[in-house]
Amino acid sequence: MKSNRNFLYLLVGQSLANIGDVLYIVGVISIIYSLTESATASAFVPFTITFSMFVSSVLTPLLIDKFNLKHLLVDSQIGKTIFLFGLGIHLMIGFDANKLIFIFVVIYLIAFLDGCANPIRQTLIPNYVAEDSLVKANGVAETVTQSIQIGTSFFGSMLLVVFDPNELIWLVTMLFVFSSIILGLLKNVEHKEETDEKKWTQLTKGWKTIKRTPLLKTVVRMDIVETIAGSVWIAAIILVYVEQALKAQEYWWGFINAAFFIGLVLGSLLCIKFSLFVDKKRHVFIIIGASLTSIFTVVFGLTSLPVIAVILSALIGIFGQLKNIPQQTLVQKSVPKEQLATVYTSLGTLGTGTFGIAALVMGVLSDYLGVRSIFVFFGYFTCTS
């Protein structure tokens, strides 16, 4: 992949935003816990984010046909900056339990804008990168994203030793400002405005594209299966798995999570290194990746050795990514570029909605069936994808 200035701007701008997103959540959860001393209240943060992104992905098609995609991405980042700035000012006044509602409103609004920005970012990549370089570009983007997830998650809590939560919010506000500036340097992409369409037509456009594209219908079925199965990997379930199945200390939970993200990075790097081969054998990598992920998940559920669990977690990350990147490239090449944004919003709606419901059900099944059983069952369930 040749040097591409717009792709670089998109990558750097989004990376700064991603770092800020993780750090601001660390700060906000710390603030909420200090206000309430309740783990349940803190747990409502990811629930609020998931619900808001679901609503956003439903409504985003109304904006896509009205506004320039680059401007939507930049404006969403500016909006996040303004909301976080408002939160920082609010917290400077001094915070008490009465401010909890305001904090959750800000969390909701920022997540709403993220839900709008995510499909646009995915849509812009094929507009800035040549078709034969898409696998490498997607691999680079995933590598950077997962590396940020690993590093920021690890160092985020350590920053609370240096900064108080309010100072962390101001640090993230600065990151968001720089992100907005860099994303503003992006080149505009050609965009057709279809202002005469009814709102219902705009909302359902992505679903109609999926319905008439056989490959996308297959991807949707796979996504449903994999999202349901993937909900067993939420933090709460893994913690129970470590305590009940492995009978190990809590720090193994951190090792398992870290190994999974490291696996994702390694899988992305392999796609970058062998991008031409992966691109030619996309279907093979999707099938092998899904199959091996299924097998390793079953074995993960059966093992009692923490070290083996860590290794399996890394392997699941590697082969999951070796499936996901070719699959994403397949989606990007299967429909015209001007239809990608609405397709991604539909896929996002499906993903967040399915995951939110599945995560709740998974907690109940874990209590009734045992944590080993759900890993084994959903390992087999993944085979259907």
Structure characterization notes:
This protein is an all-alpha fold. It has two domains: 5-184, Growth Hormone, Chain: A, CATH 1.20.1250; 200-382, Growth Hormone, Chain: A. Helices cover 84% and strands 0% of the residues. The chain has helices at residues 5-36, 39-59, 61-64, 69-92, 100-128, 134-162, 165-183, 199-211, 214-230, 235-245, 251-273, 275-280, 282-302, 306-334, 337-369, 371-382. α1 (5-36) packs antiparallel against α2. The longest helix has 33 residues, at 337-369.
The 3D shape can be described as: globular
Helix content: over 70%
Instruction: Tell me about the largest β-sheet.
Output: none
The CATH topology assignment of the largest domain is Growth Hormone, Chain: A
**How large is the count of helical segments?**
16
Low-pLDDT sequence parts: none
Q: What's the pLDDT, averaged over the residues?
A: 80
**Protein structure class:** mainly alpha
> How much strand?
under 5%
What is the CATH C level class of the largest domain, in words? Mainly Alpha
Spatial gap, N to C terminus: 31 Å
List the helices and strands and how they pair.
Blueprint: H1 5-36, H2 39-59, H3 61-64, H4 69-92, H5 100-128, H6 134-162, H7 165-183, H8 199-211, H9 214-230, H10 235-245, H11 251-273, H12 275-280, H13 282-302, H14 306-334, H15 337-369, H16 371-382
Task: Quickly describe the structure.
The chain is mainly α. The protein has 16 helices and no strands.
What key attributes describe this structure?
mainly alpha, Growth Hormone, Chain: A, 385 residues, 16 helices
